[in-house]
């Protein structure tokens, strides 16, 4: 028994960062749930929370790669606004068909990323400067495109990008039955089903990894801890999806986001290119001497970031149903903060997709909760700033203690 | 003589590793005390415990310094007591001047304003003590490693040192620089400074040490009185726990067909465009051959290797590289690797490894295609590969998931070697492959070299240790100031011949 508690403790200490992050998210949600008198976790608000944060999370995925590679991109907020404006000018003012406009916008994002990546990768201009320039340039171009005005509304076809919901594929009678059981007005069976599938998926993958670890004698987490963690995570998934199912079901954005998160988690953890990005950020010279084309990799990270910023811009415009000159203003800060709160290191080479996502949710829950409470934007900024500092301090403190 | 330092039953554990297990060390006042042991035996850790890098409370056992119990919480506290450690990795700031480095952290400041005039004067005196005639305003990065080492010592002397600890001070030094440093140690000893030296170069240990403590697997196994000299074999026996009769495995020269030909290789300096670093060098390696490149520090050996390996150094590179008789494309590192070259860097920390990552990560890094399919990594085969090399090279680590940064210096070198062996090279270029490596591990690395050449591969060995070149190579090229100044067959080669080739040019 004593030995067991010891190993649990040792594991907790060794993985303080990961557990701390999960714990912080839970604690913050609990605080706001109580403070808002239960509004936070209402289905309507949860749906809102996801919609509000989708673009931050999507950009955080791209930003994580950039930061792991040892760089930074300050232009994403402006690029996002610019792409929204581009979409509005094409679709609303010039009647370009929606699918074509979307494709053009994504390509435009890629080209913007490529342009910035070119200077960073091949001319070795510090990314801080290149993307600071980009931030100004694209903010200006947004104003120019929109001539200082908002353009909208978008056709329905475009709006579904953000405000649409996935239709329930299960028989309506099931939904009606479940709705009665839980005492809701309606019930989206698909949502709950997806939640359960996701939860099972998490557990199965966890067990698989665990048995592999055991096979190679990697000292893996103690049994009790493993199950506690998995029950919390999968429970939270089911709970979230259950809540959504009593409202309008699964937002399209959630599907987009989930797929992207899965893809990026796979890329960073399981692919050659992901591995090389970590190597590049960890020690550029050693990576280069190991045959890694570091310049090309940096370039790719920026192109990818541009595409993700464009996607975020489209989703944002669709949600607002108009393109405004202020769209995406200062959003790069939220994105970068999310990645650092999620445990990425400033010097590159470390950070996880799931961390960035949780970091984004921490920021998102705080934004949402404080807005519900009617806390002024002034205090909100102060509090968010302090949370970022606290998270990074916690990191550094931990490292020093272990070192 | 009285006892200056006594470390009693020191035990230090890291997660999964017992680095020190009840180690005892007694250092008498005024002596030079050597600590020997294999890579990962715990030598550096013991010194870090002593100097407060690992603060009191994070280890078990007691330290008595000048008769009093010492519980240092950080390096500052041990320095205040006069214990100065010069780490295995130099800690000078390359962009700053000598004087700035020496006074970094204890600036002679009055009200926050540094009196540079005074500092420079003081520095000059300190430099004179260590036998340097450089101006105090010289930038560190313009000095060679040997001189940097002396600056470190001058820095130590600026702090009123009672116990000077040198962790592998001569690992990166040329023989004559090493000699200078050892003479300085003897000189300081005559002035009453006690020192501890950690070294894998046992001849040097025999030369300076009064007492030798040998550590094996984290335990102190013996203390040898060396004031009247000590035989290297005796130290080796205690280090590895058995007799080691030969330092070099037997090899049969078996030069086959032509493998690598470098012709008319010219390279200019990357920044000073008027400086030619490599001057029209041509050399070749046959299958199954081990070819050495001898030369002094700064003779261009590393630059030659790096410029061939994917043009990783220099500008305006011209010349041809042929493999198996046909011209090979070595214009980028990945192409050079594909062509069959591998280059084990001299500077493993900044060029060879990603210290924050695991052994497994580093082992497969240069050949990710070998552990992936369609760009997707296979974690199982990665682990298998890493394990294979861990066993083959006898890397000391609890698991291949250990961070490379936590390994001892010698074991880090084995990981770099593993990385390049896994690329399956035709020609392996080794730049100072045994720097900081213990005798046992050296033997293992030599055996691996022999296996490779028996397999028909070619090996190019750049080394500052002439005995090693003489012991291992079938042929030795001699370089000086960027040009080849001679070529010797193994049977004609000797230290004197090599030196005279360098000097006469
Ligand atoms: N911070 C750390 N975390 C985990 N293990 C460590 C750490 N530092 C050292 N070790 C381990 O402790 C052991 C002793 O290491 P140490 O650096 O003292 O060896 P050494 O005798 O100096 O070897 P070398 O001659 O190669 O420098 C090694 O097995 C090493 O991997
Ligand atoms: Mg050491």
UniProtKB/TrEMBL annotation, chain A:
Question: What are the transmembrane regions?
Answer: 20-41, 53-70, 76-93, 100-119, 125-146, 189-207, 227-244, 250-267, 297-317, 353-373
Location(s) in or outside the cell: Cell membrane
Under the heading NCBIfam families, the entry gives:
GguB
Keyword Cell inner membrane annotated = yes
Entry function: Part of the binding-protein-dependent transport system for D-xylose. Probably responsible for the translocation of the substrate across the membrane.
UniProt xrefs under InterPro entries:
ABC_transp_permease
Organism's domain of life? Bacteria
Per its UniProt record, what Pfam families does this chain match? Answer: BPD_transp_2
Keywords per UniProt: Cell inner membrane, Cell membrane, Membrane, Sugar transport, Transmembrane, Transmembrane helix, Transport
Protein name as annotated: Xylose transport system permease protein XylH
Which GO molecular function annotation, any one, does this entry have?
transmembrane transporter activity
Specify whether Cytoplasm is a keyword of the entry. no
Which GO cellular component does the record give, naming just one? plasma membrane
Family matches, as PANTHER family: ABC TRANSPORTER PERMEASE PROTEIN YPHD-RELATED-RELATED, XYLOSE TRANSPORT SYSTEM PERMEASE PROTEIN XYLH
Membrane topology, as annotated, equals: Multi-pass membrane protein
TrEMBL record, chain B:
MF GO annotations:
ATP binding; ATP hydrolysis activity
Which controlled-vocabulary keywords does the entry list?
ATP-binding, Cell membrane, Hydrolase, Membrane, Nucleotide-binding, Repeat, Sugar transport, Translocase, Transport
- Family annotation (PROSITE patterns): ABC_TRANSPORTER_1, ABC_TRANSPORTER_2
Superkingdom is Bacteria
InterPro entries from the entry?
Answer: AAA+_ATPase, ABC_carbohydrate_import_ATPase, ABC_transporter-like_ATP-bd, ABC_transporter-like_CS, L-arabinose_ABC_transporter, P-loop_NTPase
For this UniProt entry, what is the primary localization, expressed as one broad class?
A: membrane
Coiled-coil intervals, chain numbering: none
Membrane topology recorded in Swiss-Prot or TrEMBL: Peripheral membrane protein
Q: What is its EC number?
A: 3.6.3.17
Q: Where in the cell is it found?
A: Cell membrane
The record, for SMART domains, names: AAA
In what residue span(s) does the ABC transporter domain sit?
Answer: 5-242, 262-501
Instruction: Return the SUPFAM superfamilies for the record.
Output: P-loop containing nucleoside triphosphate hydrolases (SSF52540)
This entry carries the following GO cellular component terms, namely: plasma membrane
What Pfam families does UniProt report for this protein, alphabetically?
ABC_tran (PF00005)
Q: What protein name does the entry list? A: Xylose import ATP-binding protein XylG
Q: Which organism is it from?
A: Pacificibacter marinus
